[in-house]
Amino acid sequence: MTNLIASEKYKFVRSKALYVTLVGLLVVVVGFLTGSVYSYFVYGEMGAPGYQGIYTPTALDILLVLWFPVFIAYFAGMEFQNKTVNNALCLGKSRLAVYLAKLLAIFAGVAAMTLLVVTVTTIVQSVVFGFGAMTISEYLPYFLRIVGLQLIFLCAVASLFTMLAFIAQTPLMTMALGIGYIIFSSALQQMVAVLFDGQLAFIREWFPSYYQVALAMQGLHGGDPAPVLRGIAVSFIWAVVTTFVGVSVFKKKDLK
Known about the structure:
Layout: H1 2-14, H2 16-43, H3 56-60, H4 62-65, H5 67-75, H6 77-81, H7 85-90, H8 95-129, H9 136-168, H10 171-195, H11 201-204, H12 208-217, H13 226-252
Helix pairs in contact: 1-8, 2-5, 2-8, 5-9, 5-10, 8-9, 8-13, 9-10, 9-12, 9-13, 12-13
């Protein structure tokens, strides 16, 4: 397992998929910030202070998550297309170990994307609008808590896309399934909220993305800890179930 993780680390650092994704995401973040900076200089509208940059992954919402299947499709899906996934299996590595090593590398990619968004937004907003009324000693635990929670919720979604990659075993199909899920889940949650007047609101609470948004909208960083714990539990269930399904399918697949 250690050798597999080291191999995934090497592929992760040298992966074109990672850097292409980060550049594309950077363009999105710059576009996102352009509006508030323009409004400030043209209309004098004050934007969010720098310390609130930690909530940008939530503000971007789908614009961030859409990059996950793109990255995973080429980082994991290309291994099947190029047959490189067979290399580890030929060395006697178990399919479970191969899957978990790839999943950890994908989690690292999610962390890199999230930290890029937070870092760029925090710097730009601090330069233009000021950092805000929060000291560094106050900010650090605040940063670790909020970003840590966001990573838990986002990695749960990434675990689903990883499962899809090991089921589809092609980059294009992985990307199509991932984007299809994002559109479907978003539409389902909106439909439940609008058509059923809150009667089926519990359905939304089974999606990690619900807690990602609620983190900013309802201030889950303080007050009642129950929503935070529920969000962590839901994310854990998603990660475990999707990993179990992904590994089970991978074990049964014939690799040519």
